[in-house]
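Our consortium's second objective concerns turning raw sequence data into structural hypotheses that experimental partners can test. To show how far this objective has progressed, the report includes one record in full. It was chosen at random from the queue rather than selected for favorable results. The single chain below, 106 residues long, was entered without modification.
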Amino acid sequence: NHIMTYQEPTLSPLVMHIGQTYFIRTAVMNFIGTVRFTAETHEGRQHTVVLDPCVWVADTGRFAEWLATGKSSNEAETERYPGHCTISLDVLSDFSPWSHPIPETV
């Protein structure tokens, strides 16, 4: 006879490091950029990041290939922001460190 009880999950803080470059997916857009500033809530949780330089990525093609090589199988369309880009982490789907050069506008 097993009794299951609910246990509140332990959440680790979402942390992006200043000076690190990331590939970021939100609900509707993809970005590559270097974190220059983060804003936090009064609880100390990051809620906004500022990326500069920043590139909007229209399509990555094969996702694992994109992350591994920084290149797309279908010539990914990218556009560089003319300045910085501010992203609310409330709309974040996921992010990965980006070790490749930040693409120019294609």
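The partners drew two points from this record. The mean pLDDT is 84. Residues 19 and 33 are 10 Å apart (CA to CA). Both points have been shared with the crystallography group to help prioritize constructs.
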